[in-house]
Amino acid sequence: MTTIRTTCPRCGEVDMSPESILLSIRDRAGEGSYRFSCPTCMNTIEKPADRKVVALLLSAGVELAGEGAQELEPQAPRAPESPERHRPGPPLTVDDLITFHFLLQNDQQFSRALQEAEGS
After folding, report:
1. For residue 26, is pLDDT > 90?
2. Which of 75, 95, 98, 102 is 20–30 Å from 54 (CA)?
3. pLDDT exceeding 70 applies to what percent of the chain?
């Protein structure tokens, strides 16, 4: 298993696996940055990466965020601009989801529920 040693500004040197690091290449020159969560303090650290560092990280198996990636923050899925159809009624609750989960466990109950929903 490959181990990558880098530094956290707070904790100093830390050892990481390639899966713990995300690499972003930001320009055609091959420079960018890499990001990781420090295993000691759990802070998210982003450091610049020149061409040599990028090449080393790629050869060690670090995942590439994508060419030209400017933002490494996870993005929340966006809601559609206009929903296909609004269904009247109360919003789903956690209890509704749990009930639905158990409904999916039994094919006969699920079929009956579908037939009842189509009939109404």
Report:
1. no
2. 75
3. 80
Q: Whole-model pTM above 0.70?
A: no
HEC readout, the chain: CCCEEEEECCCEEEEECHHHEEEEECCCCCCEEEEEECCCCCCEEEEEECHHHHHHHHHCCCEEEEECCCCCCCCCCCCCCCCCCCCCCCCCCHHHHHHHHHHHCCHHHHHHHHHHHHHC
* CA 51/CA 83 separation, integer angstroms: 45
Which residue type occupies 105? Q
